[in-house]
Amino acid sequence: MQDLIRNKSAVALSIGLSLISTKVLSAETSTDLKQIVVTASGFEQEATLAPASVTIIDQETLSKHGYRDLNDALRTVPGVTVTGGGSGDRGTDVSIRGMGSSYTLLLVDGKRQSGRESRPNGSAGFEADWLPPIEAIDHIEIIRGPGSVLHGSNAFAGVVNIVLKKRKDYSLETKVTVGNYGYEQAEVYGFNSGDDYSLSVGAYSTRSRGDSFPWLDEVEGIKGSGLRQDFEMGHN
């Protein structure tokens, strides 16, 4: 009889511990899955509570899939279409839910980025060369749906917000890419920030000889270079 009581007690204790561990695991999982988004409502909140359809591409995903640039990352998002950025054309058109690219707003750290329409005879879209490299990005927030109330008419289809890494100490990162047809690309990106300022500088150089066709004597290649600099100062 005493053995039976001990066995029942052991079973009850085992079930109790199992339930406790399950609750702890569930709590840890729910905590890990929380993602903060600021673009949808203008203030920090969990992505699941945001009043819009939100996709967040975090730093781990960016590194795991080996995206070369922002175009590669955005092409994996449902409802987002990316065109351009190839064959020497460095312009990129990002469309959300089938609407024109002029209705999609691009932000970097919440700040509006000028597009090709700012140039003489320019059109809607973004200059791919002036966007931060993947190595400098902490995460990307994609908001599908009208955001005109917060961000203006350019955000009628949605918003793409690129959030950069925050560094307290100076950091310099470099990347070299080599591909087919003589494709070579070198990138360098530097960070420096303090209590009331932040500075980021990036530069790239791209070269490719193009496709090789035996019946052509000369093939036009692709060359390009660029420089980007951002500086902010304020009081925290």
UniProtKB/TrEMBL annotation:
InterPro entries: Plug_dom, Plug_dom_sf, TonB-dep_rcpt-like. Transmembrane segments: none annotated. The keyword Signal applies. Keywords: Signal. GO terms for cellular component: cell outer membrane. One of its GO terms (molecular function) is siderophore uptake transmembrane transporter activity. Residues 50-159 form the TonB-dependent receptor plug domain. GO terms for biological process: siderophore transmembrane transport. This is TonB-dependent receptor plug domain-containing protein.
